[in-house]
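4.2 Preliminary Data

To establish feasibility before requesting continued support, the project team ran the inverse folding procedure on a target of 283 residues. The structure was first converted into the token representation described in Section 3, and no sequence information of any kind was made available to the design step. The complete token record follows.
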């Protein structure tokens, strides 16, 4: 397949971020109901403290989310999401202007106002399926776009998802989406297979095992498995006890071509990348 975009870097308004060495994205949840309780942020001081720690620990990106999309979650409106994320993005942009902020939203309006407030990347769990205005907006915004696969909506996505061939289905899904984005002039796309979003436990491990199949798109791959149920269920642990298992999956994903790790625990993920890179650099 002919390369559509550059898999080795991301262009942020002329500033190229190399992915020759994988990068880490820290998760900042401006929500009261994120599945991992310790990631919930309740005040401006707490937000700044968590962001500073992630930056010091080596995060290249910070992903700001205003609503939980955990299994069973009921979605909030764009208006409520805006009330949560815009003050947070403005605050972070003022205190840490050097860090690249991402807005985790499927609403075009939220994406537009977040970019105006200082976000430089859009992370959409719905790949434009929830808000039909998202793709046209991206063509005008000119920012990198993280596009995730999911089946169903958060409230029902884990109610018996079925695939004939999960990898083939997601490849076909991404291929159609990439074609639409390319026609609109979107030039930087990151693919997220959507671990835990409309997938059984077995589906998640099938995806991880065959993650390298997505290299055919020659686009960066983002992995989001941090403290998720695919760790908890296998190890019989809680989210708070899932760091070690998460790190193990991160190394497996890096070996299969993941270029961005989206995580709650930046320090440990950065260490994982450094160890992987040391091995990869051996002749």
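Position-by-position output of the design step:
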């Amino acid at each position: 397949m002919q390369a559509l975009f550059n898999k080795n870097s991301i262009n942020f308004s002329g500033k190229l971020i190399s992915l020759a060495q994988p990068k880490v994205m820290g998760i900042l949840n401006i929500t009261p109901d994120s599945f991992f309780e310790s990631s919930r942020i309740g005040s401006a001081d707490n937000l700044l403290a968590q962001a500073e720690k992630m930056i010091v620990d080596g995060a290249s990106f910070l992903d700001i989310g205003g609503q939980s999309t955990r299994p069973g979650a009921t979605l909030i409106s764009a208006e409520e999401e805006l009330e949560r994320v815009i003050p947070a993005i403005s605050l972070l942009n003022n205190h840490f202007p050097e860090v690249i902020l991402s807005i985790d939203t499927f609403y075009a309006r939220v994406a537009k106002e977040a970019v105006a407030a200082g976000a430089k990347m859009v992370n959409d769990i719905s790949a434009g399926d929830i808000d039909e205005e998202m793709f046209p907006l991206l063509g005008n915004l000119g920012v990198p776009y993280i596009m995730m696969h999911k089946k169903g909506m958060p409230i029902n996505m884990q109610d018996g998802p079925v695939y004939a061939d999960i990898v083939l289905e997601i490849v076909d899904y991404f291929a159609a989406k990439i074609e639409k984005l390319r026609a609109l002039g979107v030039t930087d796309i990151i693919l997220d297979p959507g671990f835990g979003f409309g997938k059984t436990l077995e589906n998640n491990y099938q995806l991880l095992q065959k993650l390298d199949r997505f290299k055919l798109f020659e686009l960066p791959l983002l992995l989001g498995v941090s403290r998720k149920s695919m760790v908890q269920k296998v190890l019989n642990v809680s989210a708070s006890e899932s760091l070690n298992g998460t790190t193990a999956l991160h190394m497996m994903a890096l070996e299969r071509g993941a270029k961005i790790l989206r995580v709650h625990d930046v320090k440990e993920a950065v260490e994982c990348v450094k160890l992987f890179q040391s091995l990869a650099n051996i002749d």
